[in-house]
Amino acid sequence: MKLTFEKIYKKIKHIESEIKELQNLKNKVPENKEYSIELHLAFDKVINDLINQKLELEQLEIENPSKELLQSIFSVDIATASTIQVIPPPLRIEEKDQEVLNFLRRIPKVELHLHIEACISKNTIIQILQEHNEKVDEQEIEKLYNFKNLNDFIKLFLFILDSIKKPEDFIFIFNNLRKYLEKNHIQYAEVFYAPSRLIQNGLPFEEIAKVLDSLAKECQIEGGPEVKFLVDVSRTFGPENASKNLQRVLKAKLDNHIGIGLGGAELMGPARDFKDVFAQARANGLHCVAHSGEDDGPWSIWDTVKILKAERIGHGTSAIQDPNLMEYLRDKTIPIEICLTSNLITGKYVRNPKDHPVRRYYDFGIPCTINTDDPEIFNIDLTQEYYNLYKYLNFSITEIIDLVKMSVQYSFHPKKNMLWNKFFKEIEELRKIYSI
């Protein structure tokens, strides 16, 4: 079936408007009445049907698809959202804030939402290509990293994955990751990697996993950062593929592979479809996290916490739209993995750093952790993200230290109290040095 983009676009916008209206009506239903549960379920059913209609429209074949259309429906594993904006220019640091930035760089940190594929610098890609004796066009690689929209972003991401020809290439990639962590004084990190495309390209998962696990052990023995891995089972390729990825993780039985995550196209892979995958992962002692609320509304987050029982929410930007959800996240102490710059670049719910809901989440009492998501691709590091909170969202130094503490507290580190006590001593010494 072929339709014009204009017709599909109008239908999608109409459905989105109806979904929003129904969500508002649902939020007005009292919580403590006998009829409340049935009404909520009825609203959810209609909303879900509309979401499915929207997904069907987004997947129709279009004559002469425009860039705008492709940007609205095409996603990859490290970007849940369906659009990518132009990367903002590098942050300009005012002279009076330089000491604050220096302090923020030196304090010990934790990062919990970080994709290893997006920690691959231009130089690392060149190294990998040279290792394979392939022709290297440095200008073309530079151009790829300066993407302007979602199509260009996808080209870069696929180019990165297709450049990886053998498990040993992850030695270069891990070294790049380690440099990033050490530069930002990140002492513990939980890192995603998405194996589906690599497996399609003929790389054996078990060998990739063993190389990464070995590198993480070696790094820690050498006194470097402690790195654990979360395998992105991926929405993009459906529940059956996700289940296969889970089986691979379970079979590998590697110490530094501690859980699974759900990334990929949020609008095309509703969380509820992966219920069985997450249930099996939990039953086998794996931690479970999921990207949610980055490209879809608060109902997506509800499914993620209620059906998948995810321990943390990646992004969670749309939670601000549902006061009941905010209360639930606060009362159940379910943390949100905040990725400020990433949310600005995907641009679905926030375009200005001052408008990011992290300030309201924190003030409301929802646990928050601060992360970069895709540092090399989005030209950001964790130090700058903390500075952005200080600069644009009026977070005090004391509040930023509290956010660092939350990142430790809501990590999957086996000795959180010991780690935080170590961090706290270092931070207090640095506060004296910088008089902050």
Describe the structure.
The structure is a single chain. The relative contact order is 0.12. This protein is an alpha/beta fold and 436 residues long. The protein starts with a strand and ends with a helix. The protein is 54% helix and 11% strand. The radius of gyration is 21 Å and the shape is globular. It has helices at residues 5-27, 36-58, 67-73, 98-106, 122-131, 138-145, 150-163, 169-183, 196-200, 205-221, 238-252, 275-283, 298-306, 323-331, 340-346, 358-364, 375-378, 382-392, 397-409, 416-434; strands at 2-3, 61-62, 109-115, 186-193, 226-232, 257-262, 287-292, 312-315, 336-338, 368-370. The chain has 2 domains: 2-65; 95-429, Metal-dependent hydrolases (TIM Barrel), CATH 3.20.20.140. α12 (275-283) links the parallel β6 and β7. The model is unreliable at 69-74 (pLDDT under 50). α19 packs antiparallel against α20. Strands 3-4-5-6-7-8-9-10 form an 8-stranded parallel beta sheet. It contains 20 helices and 10 strands.
How is the topology of this model organized?
Layout: E1 2-3, H1 5-27, H2 36-58, E2 61-62, H3 67-73, H4 98-106, E3 109-115, H5 122-131, H6 138-145, H7 150-163, H8 169-183, E4 186-193, H9 196-200, H10 205-221, E5 226-232, H11 238-252, E6 257-262, H12 275-283, E7 287-292, H13 298-306, E8 312-315, H14 323-331, E9 336-338, H15 340-346, H16 358-364, E10 368-370, H17 375-378, H18 382-392, H19 397-409, H20 416-434
Parallel strand pairs: 1-2, 3-4, 4-5, 5-6, 6-7, 7-8, 8-9, 9-10
